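User: I'm preparing a small set of examples for a lab meeting where we compare how different chains pack in three dimensions. I only have the primary sequence for this one, and I'd like the structure in token form so I can line it up with the others. Please keep the answer compact; I'll paste it straight into my notes.
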Amino acid sequence: MTTESHRAGDFAEKYRAYLPRVLNYMRLRVGDEVLAQDLTATTFERAFAGIDSLRSEEAFGGWIFTIARNVVAQHYRSQREAVSLDAVADMVDPSPSPEGHALEAVELQEILAGLQTLSEREQEIVRLKFIAGLKNREIAPLMGLTESNVAVILYRALGKLRRVVVR
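Assistant: Understood. Below is the structure token output for the 167-residue chain.
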């Protein structure tokens, strides 16, 4: 196997592993399924084009989400239009029972309302942790923080969310 085909095979493996996480992150950030898919594709295109700049295989998760964040930022700069977190409620996959769906919708609305009470930095850390599935040590360099700062901010943000949702 040539080096280039080996690299493509490794990337295909990473693509399969990270696609759902990046797509979920994009869905939450932009609130539109088709746009989320487009931005996810752009993210992976840029990642493939720049794979040689990746320092180590272990850094792939943080690296791909750095690219994803930059793609979202570039999109918003070009559009100058904000998407409300309320728009995400329309993307929820319905649960099997009407009762379950109603309960999930109420809970989602409460969580979305709670997210809006958080600072942008807190929202981003919550998204990266729970939507993208990153570990605190992967979030830290993305946000320019230490791992312990991420843990503290996350703990406080979840406390704020808990107070809003429990009310």
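A couple of notes for your slides: The chain has two domains: 1-83, 96-167. The chain is about 75% helix and 0% strand.

User: Perfect, thanks.
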